[in-house]
Amino acid sequence: MRLFVISDLHLGGRPHTDSGAIGSQICQAYIELISFIDWVRKQAKGKGSVELVINGDIVDFLMEDDYGDANAASPWTSDESLVLEKLKLIIDRTRNGTEYGPFDAMAALLAAGQNLTFLLGNHDVELSLPAVRRYLEQQLGGTGRFRFIYDGEAYVKGDLLIEHGNRYDSWNIINHSALRQERSMLSRGLGKRMQQRTSDAFTPPPGSFMVIKVINEIKRKFRFVDLLKPETEAVLPILLALHPNLQHALQAALRAGYQSANEFVTSAEPSNAGQLSTQSQVAIPTLATTLKKVVGAEDASKFSVQATNGGELGAADSLQKLRELSANIKAFIDGKASLFSEHTAGARDELLRMGLNAWRGKLSRDEQREVSPYRDAAEELVTEGKFKCVVFGHTHLPKREVIALDETSAIYINTGTWTDTMQIPLNLLEPGAAASADFRNFLGDLKANRLDKYLERRLSYADITLDDDDHVLSADLKRYLI
Q1: pTM (predicted TM-score)
Q2: SS (H, E, C) the chain
Q3: Stretch 165-177: mean pLDDT
Q4: What would the mean pLDDT of 255-260 be, rounded to a whole number?
Q5: What pLDDT, in 10s, does the model give residues 301-316?
Q6: Structural domains in the chain plus CATH codes
Q7: What is the mean pLDDT of the segment spanning 176-189?
């Protein structure tokens, strides 16, 4: 069998227009994606001989679209009818005004007798809800060759393991135990009772709160912040460089969504197996301590972040505080103390340079070497789990690394993303670069949303061949050329 693995499509969002407001769509490769899925179908050598695996963040429910105030983008939507409205709009959007889009191509793949597997990510969590899954199956033709893994399990075929990878990102871990309880109640028509509970309800991770309450507010004016994926602690110094007062909203996001299950016994084993529940005794980190972790203590002091963690607010109170703070973000980024204000006279430029440099360091562009914690987790999985190949997504950075073992080796692949990614010239990140004319021009491009010269679209995928006993024969990282 031949498997083709892609991830992080982030389908949906309002398209950009020259005359209207800045759109939220970050995947501009709908035509290429349709072509790729059709190409996969044509690689079949017989019934069931190929399988397309879409490894999480298939759609993006965290992006704004023309939903209306009653159904605006939210860190989490448990109302299945609202989620279905969003999904239907996404499916329609991705057709680009035609009758054939990515989901139609997937249905054609299944109709041809081939296999399709979805895994849940952290931007498409609502796809796991019962009514949403049923609708999705109907759209794909209701065939038994469609598989959806939505409960936190990895997808295993012989000595191949595939998972999204957010499990190893403390800002984007999904509490699958609470999510399962939500689905259990919804399947019995008792969803409203679950929503009324003060405990056991599903809480999305801090990264989701940061997207909805901070990043979405900023990207309405500055598109570049939407290209900082995934939404991890590495993004914090970049956002803090925009305006000092953003620290209050970021701390509230951290507190509102923090799950203590992000503590790990080993690189691949959480302290609470499978991150299935939270433990209140683990201290919630402050923004100040998190910033020190990202840029170092000396550089962190330059951001003047308060050491407080927001007092003793509970998650619900922090969410309410976050809503209040979020309403002020537009005023912040338009204000005199903002990064792009003439009144700052470049005072915040060095903060942005430090933030971008730290972000780049946390997510290395070296396609032959993964960074921690993903590399450490992969090594433990191939060592303890005896897997010959491990495939992640989530980071948006395609990679293929050979992991040396005692007597053999294993392959790690990250399938990257089909969205555009931002490539920043290295000379702009060097110490002292913030005072250069090139950096000032770069800031001008960010302010005016002139981003084309910094964007790259890789269209990466894993091409994996298994023998009849599901042993990995080959595993390669490739780019699709239309």
Answers
A1: 0.91
A2: CEEEEECCCCECCCCCCCCCCCCCCCCCCHHHHHHHHHHHHHCCCCCCCEEEEEECCCECCCCCCCCCHHHCCCCCCCCHHHHHHHHHHHHHHCCCCCCCCHHHHHHHHHHCCCEEEEECCCCCHHHHCHHHHHHHHHHCCCCCCEEEECCCCCEEECCEEECCCHHHCCCCCCCHHHHHHHHHHHHCCCHHHHHHCCCCCCCCCHHHHHHHHHHHHHHCCCHHHHHCCCCCHHHHHHHHHHCCCHHHHHHHHHHHHCCHHHCECCCCCECCHHHCCCCCCCCCCCHHHHHHHHHCHHHHHHHCCCCCCCCCCCHHHHHHHHHHHHCCHHHHHHCCCCCCCHHHCCCCHHHHHHHHHHHHHHCCCCCCCCCCCHHHHHHHHHHHCCCCEEEECCCCCCEEEEEECCCCEEEEEECCCCCCEECCCHHHCCCCHHHCHHHHHHHHHHHHCCCHHHEECCCEEEEEEECCCCCEEEEEEEECCC
A3: 93
A4: 61
A5: 999 887 765 444 455 5
A6: 1-169+388-418+459-481 (3.60.21), 203-229+231-362+426-455 (no CATH)
A7: 93
